[in-house]
Amino acid sequence: MAVAASEQTTVNHYIAQGSPTSISERELAQFVNAWQKLGEIELAFRQSAVAIVEQQGFTPERFNAILEAFRNQAEPTPALTNQEKEKLDTIVAQIEPLRQRTQTQMENALQSEGLAPDRFSEIYNTIQQDEGLQERVQQMMEAQMGQ
User: Fold this and answer.
1) InterPro entries, from UniProt (predicted)?
2) CB count, 10 Å around CB of 8?
């Protein structure tokens, strides 16, 4: 359903299955910087999306129940009222352009760090398969937070 698709973003878009690859120290630093920027962009998107949902009068619990039902291709319980259907249409209409802007911001963040989306994905997948790289990335992130 469109609601579930609109609610999906962003960081996961750049994380695809790939084979392990070698990563330079420079690329690792670029990855860490990009990861942090993507996280900030993702957080801003989620906060804006929650505000849109709440402006339409949904509680987070009800909206999440509706999304879960749509993901499972089932009817929400209780069933949607006509008023809720109209509100969902409004939410989708407001979140879709927000999602598109967020996607562009993420692409720009990757570009500003000198990483193509495919390379970001390769690095991510390699890190996921290498505990040493995971530890190194964690250290780099902690060092940046301490600055």
Assistant:
1) DUF4168
2) 11
